[in-house]
Amino acid sequence: MFIIDKDFPGGNIIVDEIGEDFVKIRQDLSFTREWWFYWCFRIRNVRGKKIKFYFTDGNVFGSMGVCFSRNRKKWKWLGRENINKKENSFSYKFSDFINTAYFSFCIPYVEYDLKKFLKKFPKVERRILTISENRREVEHLILKSGKSKFKVLLTARHHACETMANFLLEGIINFWFDKNIDSKFLQKYIDFHIIPFIDKDGVEEGRQGKNSIPHDHNRDYTESPIYSSTRALIKEISKWNKKFILSIDFHCPYIDEEKIYIVEPPFKVKEVRIFSQILEETNKSKLKFSIKDNLPFGKGWNNKEEGEDKSCSYYIAKNFPTKFSCSIEFPYSKCGKEIINEKNSREFGYYIGKSISKYIQQI
Ligand SMILES: [Zn+2]
Question: What pLDDT sits at residue 181?
Fold first, then answer.
């Protein structure tokens, strides 16, 4: 008989029923106030079998369907055509060479992946921002410039399931250490402070992260934050004073959104738009970005009623002497017609790095 489990970092699944050649499963919504769509599981003893997977709690498939891996190192999208929409199901025929496999809503990214990536960058300073509620180290990476004239803050995983944000951060680190003139400007003057996993417990434990009980990490920027990482981050950036030049918080949008866009807080919007224009012109990756897609404050879900005024980017824009602070939403699997993967996500991240350099050079 085959076995399904979630006992690895980022794993998330509940098994309702197992048959000879099918299984009924659903995403684990513990710790979450509202329905969400993240899941990620392992299946073993599948050699040569064909198995049908039924999801019993809503449509949990994004624009490119299911993500598949044999070893959690390389992932591939199986495509929307693989999904039976009516049944919320998909089938998979395992070859005789596969006995263990992983399936996921999106390309996972956990501490293991970060450590592997950082092996290429021994010069990245590794600090610990704080210890999480479940006793994990919350990483604080520093790319230290020669003169430390200004500091840039980059954050991800305020919502634990929004994995693609970390591939952007990898691309930004690639850019910072590159050899071109805009990278060299950063190396000379600009420190980058990166918090890759704000909700570290959520990332490792495979939680949705979005709409956590009682509120999620990106609704914790209040007078009395409840999470150790947000408290520690506020304390850290409070020491930066006028060196703190800008911050970007990386997110992934709703399940099947297919464009990259900047979420504007109501403060310092003019500068957000100057940066957006630079990003639009600088971006040479295959993934399109247009300033026209920016989401102004007060439009769509970006408003006080949805709690955006308690978000990281809003809080920083309001309370710190930065030029600007904003969020970037980066989709899980498709941007226009392009299919998103690790490589083109890093490429887009690379051009975010370049745009930050160009922005600071023009102020
Ligand atoms: Zn988010």
Answer: 98
Question: 237: which 2 tokens?
Answer: 């950036």
Q: Give the Å distance between the CA of 302 and the centre of ligand 1.
A: 12
**Ligand 1 centre and the CA of 342: distance in Å?**
19
For residue range 135-166, what is the model confidence (pLDDT) as tens digits? 999 999 999 999 999 999 999 999 999 999 99
Longest dimension (CA), the chain: 64
Ligand 1 centroid, distance to 93 Cα (angstroms):
34
Do 289 and 173 share a structural domain? yes
On whether both 83 and 216 belong to a single domain, the answer is no
Are the CB atoms for 329 and 253 separated by under 8 Å?
yes
pLDDT band at 34, cuts 50/70/90?
A: very high
Three-state helix/strand/coil letters over 64-78: CECEEECCCCCCEEC
- Which domain, by its residues, includes 342? 111-362
CA nearest to 100, candidates 195, 185, 5, 17? 5
Going from the Cα of 269 to the center of ligand 1, the distance in angstroms, rounded, reads 20
The tens digit of pLDDT for each residue in 169-184 reads 999 999 999 999 999 9
Tokens 């992932």: give the residue: 75
Residues 176 and 250 in one domain: yes
Identify the pLDDT of residue 27. Answer: 98
Between the CA of 133 and the centroid of ligand 1 the distance, in Å, is: 20
pLDDT digits (tens, 9 = 90+) for 302-345: 999 999 999 999 999 999 999 999 999 999 999 999 999 999 99
Distance separating alpha carbons of residues 47 and 109, to the nearest angstrom: 26
Query: How far away, in angstroms, is 179 Cα from ligand 1 center?
Result: 32
- Cα–ligand 1 centroid distance for 331 (angstroms): 11
334 CA from centroid of ligand 1 (Å): 17
- 173 CA to middle of ligand 1, Å? 21
Residues 95 and 115 placed together within one structural domain of the fold:
no
Q: Are residues 132 and 20 in the same domain?
A: no
